[in-house]
Amino acid sequence: MNHLGLLYQEILQEGVQQGLQQGRQAEASALILRQLNRRFGGLAPVLETRIRGLSMEQLEGLAEALLDFGTVADLQHWLGQEQD
Question: Which bin fits 42, alpha (ψ -120 to 50), beta or left (φ > 0)?
Answer without folding.
Answer: left
